[in-house]
Amino acid sequence: MSQFERDGVTAAGAIEGLPPIALTPERSSPHDWLPYCFPPALLLLSLAIIAGTWLWLGAPAADAPHFGSGKLHCVSYAPFRDSQNPLTPGLMIGARQIAEDLDQLAGISDCVRTYSTGNGLDQVPAMARRAGLKLLLGIWIGTRPSENLQQIETAIALANDYADVVSAVIVGNEVLLRREMTASDLAGIVRSVKARVKVPVTYADVWDVWLRSHEVSAAVDFVTVHVLPYWDDLPISAVRAAAHVGSMRQRIAAAFPDKEIFVGEVGWPSAGRMREGALPSPANQVRVISNILALAAQQNFRVNLIEAYDQPWKAKWEGTVGRHWGLFDSEARALKYPAGVPVRNHPFWEIQMAGGIAFCLLIFAVAYGAGRQTRGQSRPATWFAIALVASVSGVLLGMAIERTLLQGFGIAGSIRCGVLLAVATGGPLLCAIALMTGVAPPTFSEVMGVRGDRRLPGLSLALGAALTLTTLAACETALGLVFDPRYRDFPFAPLTMAVLPYLILRSFDRRQMAGSPPLAEAVFCVLFGMSAACIAFNEGRENWQSLWTCAAYLALGSALWLARAPGERTGFHFA
After folding, report:
1. At what angle do helices 282-299 and 241-255 cross, to 10 degrees?
2. Tens digits of residue pLDDT in 314-358
3. Which domain range does residue 508 map to?
4. In this predicted model, what pLDDT tens digit does every residue of 145-156 receive, in sequence order?
5. Spatial separation of the C-alpha atoms in residues 530 and 52, rounded to whole Å
6. Which residues lie closer than 8 Å to 97 by C-beta, 6 or more apart?
7. DSSP conformational letter for 312
8. pTM of the entire structure?
9. Residue 340 lies in a domain
10. Strand runs (DSSP E) across 133-270, as ranges?
């Protein structure tokens, strides 16, 4: 007998009279530790998705700009900065401001083109002489004869006083396009100016207007044609822009074989909404300008780039895209694309990536805190939903803020962008809590309080208020894109952030749905469906900004369609 047997310990390890002691340690089931490892694993995956996406978005999108070995032939110049607007009565730009700009432009160009002699621009010839620049002197022609006469007389005097600086006089800019004057009257003005100056005289307009303006072409010394592929009735992509410019110039040359064809405006915006396949971006702006300058050198024709400086005042009439045609930014007067520096479409991508990672961590932290308060064990599907919301929100947050800063001009625009950004950041956080606590978003009628004394809990009220604001903001942007789309931006980034959490919250709701959605939700659902179809048709299948935004409208409509009145639903069983 062994010592253990003599001491009363059995082979099974038990002492007589006491419960047996297991010699083999108890093995834990995977179901015990899976709930603790699963959320951190999803968090790491979400962080990797955010970091990887922004590493891709932040990579150089184009090589360092190469605009040729010499200076630009000419560049459009307007001196307005910050809140300065040429339509402000009595606005006069100081000589010092103009001199600073022209000294800077002399480093990149041999010539500047102006469009008016008002607002202090009559000082440009003297400043151009000091900077060593040639000048294409513009006369603004509009619908007011007295102002036209003043512009004409000033320009004639300047052209004669600064004949060594003024290379040509441009009488009117897109007057026929705006239908502010007949071709006959315009030709008469051109001839009257020609008779009083010693430099060549021309008129500037888009290529298709020139093709039906032979009366004006007979009056000018050379044809100044605008070819802006982005603004064509059938927009041209950045890849094909230079070839399009060359083709249109040759078409005008064939129509007017006895005239020199000067491309008086050509360029590409660095920011703004897509038009079919034409995407404004820094990389595309550099790509288009480089290709056009190379083509001009190869085929030996002159071009004037539009424009020297971004013009914030144009946003009121042309939206975000109107203020981003410059080679220099408006505020700092800094060259957008320094030589030797690769071009990035998102130059602050590292900050945007860090912000997205922080927001992802916050969503997971909020969800974890809400789960601990409920003291329940969340299902894996819940954490999958939270990870999806956190990943998408983390990727899009930096883009949403970037586009808010670009598009938030004017009181209405600032309010619209501010509301969208608020619901885009608040929605994911609220829905993360709701997923963990089993709270469903209320209907519009519940939020508006039409059911008597029934009061919603705080979280439900917050969910309903955020969804209501999201719906109203989406409705405003959708109707704008349907009825007045030309200059409106597509809010794809903030709208996706705001909508996706609600769609997930209602899609994963395992309640028994009966009947139809409430009337208000059904009306908005139909509105978003019809708007998405109309926008997608109008913008074309090449416009990914449009298609993405339409998908967000449809997602919001689907979330609203899944809503049910309180009497038609049972408990919430997702979390």
Report:
1. 40
2. 998 899 999 999 999 998 999 999 888 899 999 999 999 999 999
3. 47-53+357-568
4. 999 999 999 999
5. 36
6. 79, 81
7. G
8. 0.88
9. no
10. 134-139, 166-173, 201-206, 223-226, 261-266
